[in-house]
């Protein structure tokens, strides 16, 4: 117990923030006769405290039995953000490898495990998966080191609450559209007296929700995006995090010529597929009908009407004879 206490004090000096220690006594019912200590540490990438460049985070939980360090601690990862199951497995694998390779049986390993977690998250500090808008990969390992998509906040927009990330240009267009739609909705509904229940309810209703998980975009994220779109607040509209979306909206400034060519090819394939669906009558909501080309349908109806009129006139002439 004394050895554990000394190691915990060392951890507290190393990690003054984000460290929590809880001591559990043996259970009274006798099912668990061992005392154990739980260490929880919030782990984020080391980015010089720039949270806008932190795309992943997790809580490392270490449970120590009263026979530690002779007995190996129990490890788990909770409250992960920005990490899918595969990358969580990578973190856990690195922790186990570090304990097995760099510590002899009976050695204290808490500091080793914590440092390994920080180093691994720093290495994995990039958005993962595809952008929810364009369905293109958020990050590509084959991009050169000086490409903005390699660990650059200018290429991405990250929501602080849920850690979902999007291409800056895609998110900027969506944010503009959503803001315009909310303003149009308010204008359509009309104004309510200040202080009324309707006005209060409308003012509290979030106008922007995360496109991936539908959580409300908090005020800090909203303010940062608005600054990015307008370029106000003393920010250079061509550099920095706050100017990233302006540059992206003005022409996908972070994309290389190869990226643009790939995007044009993808758009051409999409338009070709849309045309095939339209020809087959498979576009739902194309015009006012579902899966129906109204222009063609109207022309066909007019032709049928003309034919029916001509036939009716012929029958009338035959009757008069």
TrEMBL record:
Q: Which UniProt keywords apply?
A: Metal-binding, Zinc, Zinc-finger
What region holds the RWD domain?
Answer: 6-124
Give a GO cellular-component term: nucleus
Tell me the Gene Ontology biological-process terms attached to this UniProt entry. Answer: protein ubiquitination
Q: Which InterPro entries match?
A: RNF25, RWD_dom, UBQ-conjugating_enzyme/RWD, Znf_RING, Znf_RING/FYVE/PHD
PANTHER family per the UniProt record, alphabetical: E3 UBIQUITIN-PROTEIN LIGASE RNF25, RING FINGER PROTEIN 25
Q: What is this protein called?
A: RWD domain-containing protein
Q: Identify the domain of life.
A: Eukaryota
Where is the RING-type domain positioned along the sequence?
131-214
Q: Which GO terms describe its molecular function?
A: ubiquitin protein ligase activity; zinc ion binding
Q: Which CDD domains match?
A: RWD_RNF25
What organism, scientifically named, is this protein from?
Micromonas pusilla
């Amino acid at each position: 117990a004394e050895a554990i206490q000394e190691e915990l004090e060392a951890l507290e000096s190393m990690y003054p923030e984000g460290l929590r220690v809880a001591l559990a006594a043996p259970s009274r019912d006798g099912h668990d006769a061992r005392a154990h200590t739980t260490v929880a540490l919030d782990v984020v990438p080391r980015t010089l405290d720039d949270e806008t460049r932190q795309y992943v985070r997790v809580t490392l939980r270490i449970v120590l039995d009263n026979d530690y360090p002779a007995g190996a601690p129990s490890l788990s990862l909770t409250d992960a953000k920005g990490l899918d199951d595969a990358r969580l497995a990578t973190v856990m694998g690195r922790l186990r490898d570090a304990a097995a390779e760099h510590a002899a049986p009976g050695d204290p390993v808490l500091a080793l495990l914590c440092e390994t977690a920080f180093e691994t998250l720093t290495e994995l500090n990039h958005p993962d998966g595809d952008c929810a808008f364009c369905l293109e990969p958020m990050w590509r390992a084959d991009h050169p080191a000086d490409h903005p998509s390699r660990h650059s906040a200018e290429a991405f927009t990250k929501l602080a609450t849920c850690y979902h990330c999007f291409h800056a240009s895609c998110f900027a267009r969506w944010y503009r559209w959503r803001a315009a739609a909310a303003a149009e909705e308010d204008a359509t509904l009309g104004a309510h007296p200040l202080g009324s229940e309707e006005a209060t309810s409308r003012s509290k209703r979030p106008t922007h929700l995360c496109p991936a998980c539908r959580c409300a975009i908090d005020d800090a994220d909203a303010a940062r995006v608005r600054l990015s779109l307008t370029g106000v607040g003393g920010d250079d509209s061509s550099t920095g995090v706050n100017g990233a979306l302006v540059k992206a909206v003005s022409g996908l400034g972070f994309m290389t010529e190869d990226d643009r060519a790939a995007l044009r090819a993808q758009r051409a394939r999409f338009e070709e597929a849309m045309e095939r669906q339209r020809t087959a009558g498979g576009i739902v909501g194309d015009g006012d009908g579902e899966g129906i080309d109204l222009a063609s349908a109207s022309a066909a109806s007019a032709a049928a009407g003309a034919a029916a009129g001509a036939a009716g006139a012929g029958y009338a002439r035959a009757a008069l004879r």
